[in-house]
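Subject: Sanity check before I submit

Could someone independently write out the structure tokens for this chain? I want to compare against mine line by line before I put it in a report. The sequence has 203 residues.
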Amino acid sequence: MILVSGAAGKTGRAVIEALAARGAAARAFVHRKEQAMSVLALGAAEAVVGDMQNEADAQKAMAGATAVYHICPNVHPNETGIGEIAIRAAQQNNVSRFIYHSVLHPQVEAMPHHWQKMRVEEQLFTSDLAFTILQPAAYMQNLRGSWDSIMEEGIYRVPYPPSTRLNMVDLRDAAEAAAVVLTTPGYEYATYELAGPENLSQT
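---
Independent answer below. Compare away.
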């Protein structure tokens, strides 16, 4: 059984679908009861409702799991603490492989949500878990959040100079990479950057 935490978010849902396409049994760890039905409909074999910040809930979610794909809620202020709980629960439940959903360039201290992911990576380095770290670039699908204003005003607003070139990755490709790592041996003790083929301009 493969546990996917943060399974109700866009990344978790995509990973559930990618695992189901491979015939892999996935247990979805979600925060609210109403989210359980939606992840089961995507192909999850089981759904566990709980709080990742609660040690007992994390233990319950990981019981019997052979592998974990740990996704913390986006920009969570306590990602380091949540990561510590997840790693400890995985160790206590003898999880064979722990895959952590990090971010491209987690070492950027000026971005606190990146910096916290680096701290979780460091916890994995000193653990006794067989771990893999995936560092995806920004998702192409994030552009959908600006689509209405682009269509209505013809303007794509970004919080950085328009000359900035960014790398992006398709969410489905990142999820497929996660499914491969979760179901195929040989990716342990490694970090993989998930990125598109080129850096894209914003104009």
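---
OP: Matches mine. For the report I'm noting this point. The mean pLDDT is 94.
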